[in-house]
TrEMBL record:
UniProt keyword annotation of DNA-binding present: no
Location (main, coarse): membrane
Membrane topology: Multi-pass membrane protein
Transmembrane regions listed in the UniProt entry: 33-54, 61-85, 91-113, 125-145, 176-198, 210-235, 255-272
Keywords: Cell membrane, Membrane, Transmembrane, Transmembrane helix
Short name of any one Pfam family annotated for the protein: BPD_transp_2
Organism of origin: Crenobacter intestini
Protein name from the UniProt record: ABC transporter permease
Coiled coil: none
Subcellular location: Cell membrane
GO cellular component, one term: plasma membrane
GO molecular function, one term: transmembrane transporter activity
Length: 294
């Protein structure tokens, strides 16, 4: 195993981990506010097809990334309207959002099936700027949650919304901002998939990455810095199947394709053996709707 192969493996792992980092960090913020959004997969697909379509027509990767974030933002706004405004069940609404995103992206992406795009995202030290931004976002988000007043308020709303409301803070606007932020990052993650990671459009191209991002939040016990480590683990499993042939290992491709999902299941099983571990940083009001009196 030469140096060039190791460098290529590290860089490809970082690229594969980027959409997981973005989607997981967005969902982490949402869940820290006490809201559970299971629609990450659907928002990623909407972001992927929107980014691909806009970049194809304009030739601008920046416009494509903006469109991807906008698509994720729009679907998260719909989710917020239903769960925060109409107080629908968060689990059922999130699942419906995923199904909606899958169907919408399949329909909207029909004219682009099989097409490729050249995004031309600038690179630094072998990694594109979006990947570097995703890595930098992990410590920045940790600082926001732990060291800023806004971050502490977000956590308070996720822990005890009735207390935050009693002392004069509006719970639903704070949760709305968190949901929109999570949707924008999920859309950006989808845009990265269709413009950088695999610069083409294919129906269902997220291939379950939205669900892995949800599992990654639990794996990280709602801590941003651990998201980075978990995403690299799962990204490495994805890349491993692509580099196995170069190593000359005779392993069935079907087994290699299931490695990321197998790793997800195994990690969650190990974590969930001790309830104290899984509940260590879980927001107390996660998934529970809050009805303010005023």
């Amino acid at each position: 195993m030469n140096e060039a192969f190791v460098i290529a493996l590290v860089l490809s792992t970082a690229a594969a981990a980027t959409p997981l980092i973005l989607a997981a960090l967005g969902e982490l913020v949402v869940e820290r506010s006490g809201v559970l959004n299971l629609g990450v997969e659907g928002m990623m697909l909407a972001g992927a097809v929107s980014a691909f379509a806009v970049t194809t027509h304009t030739g601008s990767a920046a416009a494509g990334f903006a469109a991807g974030m906008g698509a994720g933002l729009a679907l998260s706004a719909l989710f917020a309207l239903l769960t925060l405004g109409l107080m629908t069940n968060q689990v059922a609404t999130g699942l419906a959002l995923t199904l909606f995103g899958v169907g919408l992206s399949a329909f909207a992406g029909q004219p682009f099936v099989g097409q490729v795009v050249s995004a031309g995202v600038p690179r630094v030290l072998g990694l594109d700027l979006v990947a570097w931004a995703a890595i930098a976002l992990c410590p920045l988000l940790w600082l926001f949650l732990q060291k800023t007043r806004a971050g502490l308020l977000l956590r308070a709303v996720g822990e005890r919304p009735e207390v935050a409301d009693a002392i004069g803070f509006a719970v639903r606007p704070i949760r709305l901002a968190a949901v929109l932020f999570g949707g924008a990052l999920a859309g950006l993650a989808g845009a990265y998939l269709s413009l950088v990671n695999t610069p083409m459009w294919a129906e269902g191209m997220t291939a379950g990455r939205g669900w892995i991002a949800l599992a990654l939040v639990v794996f990280a016990t709602w801590r941003p810095l651990r998201v980075l480590a978990g995403a690299w683990l799962f990204g490495g499993m994805t890349v491993l199947q692509l580099h196995t042939q170069a190593l000359g290992l005779a392993i069935p491709s079907e087994f290699l394709s299931m490695l990321p999902y197998l790793a997800t299941v195994l990690v969650l099983v190990l974590i969930c053996r001790d309830p104290r571990t899984i509940l260590l940083n879980q927001p107390l009001s996660l998934g529970k709707p809050y009805h303010p009196d005023r």
